[in-house]
Amino acid sequence: MGAGGAPSATVGLFGSSPVGTTVRWIGTDVNVRVFYPAIVAVQSEGDSAQRARWIPDPQSVYLRGYARFLGLDVRPARWLFGLLFGSLRMEAVENLNPDVSRRLPVVIFSHGLGGTATAYAKLCCSLASHGCLVLALEHQDGSASATLTVSGTPLYYQAPTPDDSESKRRHIRQEQLDQRCREIQRVIEWLNGVTSDSAEDALLESLLQAVDPQQVTLCGHSFGGATVVRWCLSSQAVGVPLKHCILLDPWLWPLLQADGRVPAPAAEPASTLMIINGLFLKRLTPVERRALQTWPAVHRLVLLGAAHQVQSDFEHRLPRVFVRLVRLASRNDPDRLFDVQTELIQAFLGDDQEHFNRLLARHRDLVNRFK
């Protein structure tokens, strides 16, 4: 463990703790996939049968959602995706007993457009194995490729139409960001004991009792990065003791004002790490690039040759040929890119500046500072 109980990168990509996972609702409006350090390990390294499926149940809903999001013919794509992805497993086991023998720093994770709560499972499991409680939201705003409402009704991705004006598209995304921020606020209130949403849930209550409320990090990828920024712009951020913010290839276009700038944060923002993927950066307009340069960040890095989805599981779990076919492939080795950025995240969360700098020096062929 690093300073203040946060994870240290010096012990490798995956830490010593086995990882448990479960899906829970906080109230009736916040769907959370929980990743947590657990007590009982998987019996053997090669025994994957116990591990949770990467595509959760009901698989037909999530497979259909991914097919729709990619604009593919749903029936054949769902069948093909079932063959390719249906048996994939995460690095976590369902409903293990949590290890609450120590205080748990918290990472609240917000997915990007078309993402789900398991789309970033490798990163979430890595953080949990180092002692973090990771709360991966599956947003109910129509931005997930698929999710379920509290009643079990499927909710699929809802996109602006090609005929919508730029102002209407921005308005739709801003409404989604507002709902996402309400969900994050609900989680923060739960962590601080403001609500009693988990009073009858033994697993959540045991985790809640072990939470360190002074060690809360907001992390998001793409539209999830915009969600973190939007929350920091809100009045709700005032007085909330966030420890860190992590922005992974943030897509800030929905937040741009008429003058092309992102508003200043409502309060002094938490210490922020911004990691920008090189191939995504090339697609941004000068205005969008300037927004990345002006948002307050302690570290602003570029992963060279990295595609937009390198933080997600897609480049790491799916066949390379498929990743190239749907144009998600990085130019540099995606596994090495993922490992480097995850080690940097762990060093940042552990406030281990010396190790952070060593990582930058060691991997200068893959990561540069963005100025």
Protein traits:
globular, 371 residues, two-stranded antiparallel sheet, 12 helices, disordered N terminus, Rossmann fold
Strand order of the largest sheet: 3-4-1-2-6-5-9-10-11-12-13
The helix/strand order is EEEHHEEHEEEHHEHEEHHEHHHHE
Assign the CATH class.
Answer: Alpha Beta
According to DSSP, the number of beta strands is 13
The CATH homology group name:
Alpha/Beta hydrolase fold, catalytic domain
Q: Tally the structural domains.
A: 1
Helix and strand content put the structural class at: alpha/beta
How is this structure best described in words?
It is a single chain. This protein has 371 residues and is of the alpha/beta class. It has one domain: Alpha/Beta hydrolase fold, catalytic domain (Rossmann fold), CATH 3.40.50.1820. Helices cover 35% and strands 20% of the residues. It is built from 12 helices and 13 strands. The longest helix has 26 residues, at 166-191. This is 1-alkyl-2-acetylglycerophosphocholine esterase. It is an enzyme of class 3 (hydrolase).
